[in-house]
Amino acid sequence: MRIQSRRAVWVVVLVAFARALALSAQPHLVTDLNQQRVPAFLPSQLSRGVEHGGALYFSGQDPQHGRELWRTDGTAEGTYVLVDLCPGRCDGGGQALGFFQGSLYFLGNDSEHGTEIWRTDGTVGGEELLADLCPGTCGTEPKRWVEWRGEIWFLIVASGSPVLWTSDGTGQNTRPVANLCDDLGLSCFDRDDRADLDGPDPSGQGLLLRIYSFDHPNGALFRTDGTAAGTLLLHRFADVFQIAVEPSGPLYFLDGLDLWTSDGTPSGTRFVRRFDDPEQGDVLSIKAVDGIFYAIFGNGDWLRLDGTAEGTIKLARLDFNIYSGPRVARIGGTVFAVTGSGVWRTGGTPETTVRFDGPLGNIESVIERPDRLFVMASDGTRFVWTVDGSGQARRIHLAGPPPPDGEIAGFREGILISRGFRELWRIDGAGARIERVHDFQPQNGGSGPIDQLAFRGRLLFLSLDGRSSKLFSSDGTAAGTAAISAEPHYNYNFSFDYRPDFYSLTRAGKRAFFRSGSILWTTDGSRAGTGPIYPSLAHPRLYLAAPIGSIRGRFLFGGNPLGTVRCDPGDTEPWVSDGTPGGTNRVLNLNPFFEPDNDPQCEIVKLSSSPGPGVSLGRVVLFAADDLLHGRELFSTDGTKAGTRRVADLNPNLQSNPYFHPESPELGPEQVGVGSDPSDLVRAGRTVFFVADDGRTGRELWATNGTHRGTRRVVDLVPGPAGSSPHDLVAVGDGIYFFASNPGGAAGEGLFKSDGTRAGTVRVSDLAGVSQARDLTVAADRLFFVAFRPESGTELWTSKGTVGTTREVADLRPGSRGSLPQLLSAVDDRVIFAADDGTSGLEPWTSDGTAEGTVRWGDIAAGRDASTPGPFSVVNDQILFGADDGEHGRELWAIPVADLPE
């Protein structure tokens, strides 16, 4: 035992030493192509944030982290990403729910569990999953979040029913309490808003619920203690309703024109009065303050009610535009009406109601602070006003561009405000001190790469160059990196991760093709040989919808010749191109039918066969397409109309044509094919493997040699219509490996291999205890893939095709949070990928399939920040990839293959 213990210690030491040595060979920045700020839409969700302990916790977004949970204390140094739940630029969400017993609970998606409830102790790295309420990647999104009787209560709509849950803050005691439809015997509507949770009732005896059902089509108000016996009906709504509730006072609600009040009991729920004055119009704003009900009507009447039919007082006739969004608000015990033409303060009588000058515009937000109001209004440009307790209003002048935008949120005595969708500013309680807290968008915006392709000994990539994009070519050096497109590609819809409207660079023979905006482009790798393709004057904008394959040096793709008029929106069909306008033609119109259009000026528009993706097999390309008559099936083409045919109708079942009309033959026949929907086409030797559903055996593995007679189902792994749903097919020699459901009723998915015969299709491993296996990658004689285990999260796995060699490579991030390996790429007998070990962020790694040979080879963004490296391309014995070091933005980086750790 002592010898084994010492060996284990030495293994750990050697692994750590190897990883330390690996960091000596660092990747380097090739060139900083774009040093300008890039337009980006970076909204933060301030208004839904949670304030606690002098800090605001909110869902924010920046180019380096995506949308995640942020924290700010109102200072620049105290504003940062608290939880990067989905490492890199993917969105973890980070929507704060509330504090409970010292922990912040929030909604997040770590890409392993779907959207679930998490909690954090407020420190970086201090987050953990509360419970996997919907096991797997399905996720849950609770509606409302209420603390009552020392527990958390929330609603989840799952499997068609709203379910009330409760939790004491531990996973083992997070449990469903009641199915609000089944347990109450209600026939609920089949929609997500069938129930809502309003919080504790005024009596403190239960929670207020609103449930929509066939019994209560306009909704019903219930009080529940979490049991069927303790659930009481308070009111059935007959019309559109509004609710005003405060924790210490009675509940008021409007049922159409009728005002009701309730103390949370059936006997204490009573009618107050009806607002049937036709001159008053709709109720625009309501609020309950210290047990008194206030309402603003469309004609400007501002009423105060004490809960009795006789106790109605008209405080004032307000002068405002009905569309300006008037609000009732309070400062302490004083009530205000804020409108787009002034501010009114009342002492509860007409005589004590006074008007002051105020915002001249539409009211968008009103934030109540202890001694004042902050109002965001708009008259074409957003601006902020402050209103003190006396009713005096003053416009706050924010220094410098951009103008206020986005949202405001209460913070301490003042507010936080987002400006220009990228900056966070703070205004103090007096409305006098204004300072910028954080800029979510760095000054150096980065160039990309947006997309890349190893092509004829160089790297082709699309990147931002200032505020437009160009096609670049690089040999991996700064001197050898230059733009080769003769004109910029403009796009005004830049998202935060700098991905304009381009489609993948695709190689076909000696040329590459890509989409820029709505035009097909091509390149031979030189500046002179790079340009757009305009196939005709009638359709100059040819849209590349999906690459299909390459055939004799020509590019086969799904093309859409965008029309020049509204009723000619285009038709995605197979096209072929040799890179010249004359050699760019539609192969044929596989789906010649039409569908009705909602636009009365159009009546009908073209249906698309939506071909692709595909795979080359000798002199033909095999691809999936939908001709409507047979549904989506397998087709073959040699690039000509005469040489294009359907390989097989694998699913001969028929279904009703949703477009059919007996007087409109252009809409197709009454019955059309269901289709087998071929997918995952992979060539291995002279065989193409794919996945399809023949209508009897579910989605299973198929193979074809490109002919009808040579197309067959390989094996029915899981008998019955459910199928085994194979995925991640990869070729190894003349066979393939893939993941599929385990046969014989065994749980989960296994790793399989097939030579194209039933006898030669066997399970390598049942992957017991493993789920979400994906990204199957071949490197020499070894397979790599990513999989999830509850004990270690999502980590890197390997296999040599036997059960004994199928195992987790290393637990790079110890504990239940995995390192989330991604963008796996084979380099000789190793794999390179991006992963997050929990201390260095999402950075580049390499592995030879052993724990000691799995090492990080760069910390490009120092510390916990993620550089989000990848994708990876090998060019001239260098690995070229995009990464963000936090200083230059996302740019092109490189490392020689020889410098990768062994």
Quick structural overview:
This protein has 902 residues and is mostly beta strands. It has one helix and 76 strands.
Task: Please give the structural blueprint.
Layout: H1 2-22, E1 28-31, E2 45-52, E3 55-62, E4 66-72, E5 80-83, E6 93-100, E7 103-109, E8 115-120, E9 127-131, E10 143-148, E11 151-158, E12 161-167, E13 174-179, E14 195-200, E15 207-211, E16 220-224, E17 231-236, E18 241-244, E19 251-255, E20 258-262, E21 270-274, E22 283-289, E23 292-297, E24 301-305, E25 312-317, E26 327-331, E27 334-339, E28 342-346, E29 354-356, E30 362-368, E31 372-378, E32 382-388, E33 393-396, E34 404-411, E35 414-419, E36 423-427, E37 434-439, E38 451-455, E39 458-465, E40 468-474, E41 481-483, E42 502-508, E43 511-516, E44 519-523, E45 531-533, E46 542-551, E47 554-561, E48 573-577, E49 584-586, E50 594-596, E51 604-606, E52 614-617, E53 620-626, E54 632-637, E55 645-648, E56 654-656, E57 671-673, E58 679-684, E59 687-693, E60 699-704, E61 712-715, E62 727-732, E63 735-741, E64 749-754, E65 762-765, E66 771-779, E67 782-789, E68 793-799, E69 807-810, E70 822-827, E71 830-836, E72 842-847, E73 854-856, E74 872-875, E75 878-884, E76 890-896
Antiparallel strand pairs: 1-76, 2-3, 3-4, 4-5, 6-7, 7-8, 8-9, 10-11, 11-12, 12-13, 14-15, 15-16, 16-17, 18-19, 19-20, 20-21, 22-23, 23-24, 24-25, 26-27, 27-28, 28-29, 30-31, 31-32, 32-33, 34-35, 35-36, 36-37, 38-39, 39-40, 40-41, 42-43, 43-44, 44-45, 46-47, 47-48, 48-49, 50-51, 52-53, 53-54, ...
